[in-house]
Amino acid sequence: MTALSTPGIPSLLRTMNDRSALDLLLDRGPLTRAELSELTGLSRPTTGQLLARLQASGAVVSDGHRTGRRGPNAELYRIDPALAYAAGLDVTPGKVVGAVADVTGAILALNEVSVQATTSVDPAVCVHEVLSKALADAGLTRKSLTHVTVGSPGSIDPITGRLEYASHLRGWHEVDLPVRLRNAIGVPVEIVNDVRLAAVAEMTVRGTRDFALLWMGAGLGLAHVSGGQVLAGARGGAGEVGYMPVPGADVPRSVRRRNTGGFQSLIGAPAVRKLLAEAGFGSRTAEAALRRAADAADTGNASAGRGIDHLATRVATGLAAICSVIDPPLVVLAGDVGTAGGEALRGRVQRELDEMSMTRPPVETTVVTARPVLHGAVRAAVARARDAAFAAFLGSIDRSSS
């Protein structure tokens, strides 16, 4: 019998090995040839050929030598940071913040533009203004960008391209919004729910691939991360728990026209502020009030303790319903309000949830407290930029080898 010929297999294996090496150099680099050989399982001669290909393509550059060991100093290799650039943005009713990063994820420049929360804005003009300044500060132009990820309240309906669940974000509800932004900027633009991007940042820093993140801030939302994937749902509405019916709150009705009742009415920022004001800890914002109450509870103030107990019961009531459906191995409290309560809130939510939930997942506070949505947007944009850049470079290597 004559063996079937599969001429594409060597090329495919080479491409797979090259991509594996690029990912390792990003995640663990700089690396020597011996270290890369050990991590990939390839022989040293094969690894040497691989590095020669990647250097010739411009994707990999020399990074000096490893010192402090016996024997000759080994040459180090790393990804060229200029291989690709991406940008992430965080859009809120009062401001838009943008950051530009290289292919390694290092942020090169950041820019913030204030907008009138009560005035309708032009999204294309807003995004262009934020990116232009950030790119100029980084010494780049729009042609340098490969991908842009925009973090926004609500989510894009995959059918209409319209931003849903974010009526308070004025001017951002056009049909085919991602397409319009792409036409204005000149590169692919992806609009992602802000809470899901906060979960991307959490997953990156925490190194956890399965959890539920409850965001308590100006808005309320949930991100469900399973197997390293942040689930969005059929119409992008997964995690809109503000509309979730819960005991103690009015059942939400006509939710596309009004936003009353549901979980939001129990633990949204206005509800938290009112609850703590009744306990004697009024403040201009919910997070400031909760921080004051948490500090007082830590010193034994009974009124503060009761106020936070009441809030924890509300939070745990919604979490118990969520956990009975998705059964996460971990719950993360995030957002300005979610983190303001510190251990005083977290511990009480844990105790209440243990009483209400059969699954009893651990409750922890987020490990990403500084600009989580922006960092998640940058991370998501860089991942897209890497895929595009690596595909282009590996394709050019494959064509030149044919």
Describe it for me?
With 402 residues, the chain is of the alpha/beta class. It folds into 3 domains: 8-79, Winged helix-like DNA-binding domain superfamily/Winged helix DNA-binding domain (Arc Repressor Mutant, subunit A), CATH 1.10.10.10; 83-187 and 372-389, Nucleotidyltransferase, domain 5, CATH 3.30.420.40; 207-365, ATPase, nucleotide binding domain (Nucleotidyltransferase, domain 5). The protein is built from 13 helices and 15 strands. The strands form 4 sheets. It has a 5-stranded mixed sheet with strand order 6-5-4-7-10. Strands 13-12-11-14-15 form a 5-stranded mixed sheet, with helices on both faces. The protein has a 3-stranded antiparallel sheet with strand order 1-3-2. The radius of gyration is 25 Å and the shape is globular.
Distance between the termini: 29 Å
Assign the CATH superfamily of the largest domain: ATPase, nucleotide binding domain
- Give the topology string: H per helix, E per strand: HEHHEEEEEHEEEHEHEEEHHHHEHHEH
What helical percentage do the residues reach? 40-55%
Sequence stretches where pLDDT stays below 50 over 5 or more residues: 1-8
Tell me the number of helical segments per DSSP (H or I, 4 or more residues long).
Answer: 13
Global geometry: globular
**Strand order within the widest beta sheet:** 6-5-4-7-10
Overall pLDDT: 89
State the total count of DSSP E strands: 15
Structural class: alpha/beta
Q: Could you say what the CATH architecture of the largest domain is?
A: 2-Layer Sandwich
Q: Mind describing the biggest β-sheet?
A: 5 strands, mixed
- The CATH topology of the largest domain is Nucleotidyltransferase, domain 5
- How many domains would you count in the coordinates? 3
Q: How big is the Rg?
A: 25 Å
Strand content: 15-25%
Task: Indicate the CATH class of the largest domain.
Answer: Alpha Beta
